[in-house]
Amino acid sequence: MTDLRLLICSDLHTSEEALSMLKTAASKDDYDAIVVCGDFTTYGSPAFVRKFLKAVPMRVLAVPGNCDTQETLEMLEAAGASVHDRRVELDGLGFFGFGGGLPSPANMPFEVEEEIMERSLRSNAARGAVMVTHVPAFGMNDKGKHGKSLGSKALLKVASDFKPRLALSGHVHESRGVVSHNGTVFVNPGPAREGFYATAEVGQKVHVELVDRSSDLSD
Q1: Which pLDDT score is estimated for 1?
Q2: What is the CATH number of the domain that holds 210?
Q3: Which is nearest to 12 in space by CA: 177, 173, 149, 152?
Q4: Do the strands 166-168 and 130-133 form a parallel or antiparallel pair, or are they unpaired?
Q5: Per-residue b or e along 17-56, where b marks 16 or more CB atoms closer than 10 Å to that residue's CB
Q6: If we measure between CA atoms, which residue out of 147, 6, 152, 129 comes closest to residue 66?
Q7: Sign of CA dihedral 144, 120, 10, 163
Q8: What is the extent of the structural domain holding 101?
Q9: Could you count the other beta carbons within 10 Å of the beta carbon of residue 99?
Q10: Distance CA 41, CA 15 (A)
Q11: How many domains does the chain have?
């Protein structure tokens, strides 16, 4: 496996400023892929997803978020950009994932039972690969605004059993961060619509950097 450089983002929520920020970031460095951990939109049209795919000049690897629709997933699949419910390889490094959120009283557009999510991830997982989800693993960058863990215990079990090198997620806007646990580096890049993303270099070691461009965005 050759060393890979990844641009990591989540939770754009149809923000044109976020798209412009990521396009600029992509043009300034030599990344092998951009990984999107869901919520391209907020219950919106997949037209923004189409625009994103055309604007970013590199391989896109993505899952839908709980605010995305089935149309978003279909567009990602048609573009060869989806890692939802599958595993793909990029230069010898595997990426497996599952998007959407867990069932909630809000009844969001893309919600999936935790057991289904776990079953899919286990069927596609590979030791040392990259796990891409919208929902974080329990206890890993998952504290909401009231301090409650909003992550999935099933995802934490999958990570514990298969030890992916990276576990990338979003969803919980308040818990941007990097945590190393049991052989896996868990990353929540923060919401792109607020000016946040992350980068990762994956080789013999994994190096992650959180990037804050929030001051560049308009109020």
Answers
A1: 61
A2: 3.60.21.10
A3: 173
A4: parallel
A5: bbbebbeebbeeeebbbbbbbbbbbbebebebbeebbeeb
A6: 152
A7: positive
A8: 4-216
A9: 28
A10: 8
A11: 1
Residue 149, number of CB atoms within 10 A of its CB:
17
Please tell me the predicted confidence (pLDDT) of residue 161.
Answer: 97
pTM as predicted: 0.95
HSE (side-chain half, CA atoms, 13 Å) at 69: 12
C-alpha to C-alpha distance for 17 and 32, rounded to whole angstroms:
22
Q: Output the six-digit token pair for 106.
A: 């809000």
Summarize pLDDT for 69-127 with one digit per residue, the tens: 999 999 999 999 999 999 999 999 999 999 999 999 888 999 999 999 999 999 999 99
Q: Taking residues 52-78, what's their average pLDDT?
A: 96
Nearest alpha carbon to residue 134 among 203, 84, 75: 84
Distance CA(214)–CA(167), nearest Å, equals 24
